[in-house]
Amino acid sequence: MPLYRYNPSGVCCQEIQFEIDEEKKIKQVFFIGGCPGNLSAISKLIQGKPAAEVAELLSGNDCAGKGTSCADQLAQALQQALCQL
């Protein structure tokens, strides 16, 4: 299983790392930087879920009027990764 790395923009976290298994489910997610409590909770909640469903659910989530959020950036990263599979 490859480890995907995504460099988000417009948010506090500096990098998002994740794995998607052969069934296109999220194996694990790590956020480097950002709000540790919230991002750790998101990681736990989405583990084992289909990546496409998570991307759809989190897409467009906004943080403090930034037009994006760490969750939205994760959705973009997942969409990119799914296109590569």
Task: State the main characteristics.
3 strands; 85 residues; globular; Sufe protein. Chain: A; alpha+beta
CATH architecture type: Alpha-Beta Complex
- The assigned structural class equals alpha+beta
Query: Ranges with pLDDT <50 over ≥5 residues?
Result: none
The succession of helices and strands, N to C, reads EEEHHH
- What level of helicity do the residues show? 40-55%
What is the number of helical segments per DSSP (H or I, 4+ residues)? 3
Strand content: 15-25%
Largest sheet geometry:
3 strands, antiparallel
Oligomeric description of these chains? single chain
Determine and state the CATH class: Alpha Beta
- Write down the overall geometry: globular
Straight-line N-to-C gap: 11 Å
Mean pLDDT: 97
Number of strands: 3
Strands side by side in the biggest sheet: 1-2-3
Rg of Cα set? 12 Å
CATH topology heading: Sufe protein. Chain: A
- Tally of structural domains: 1
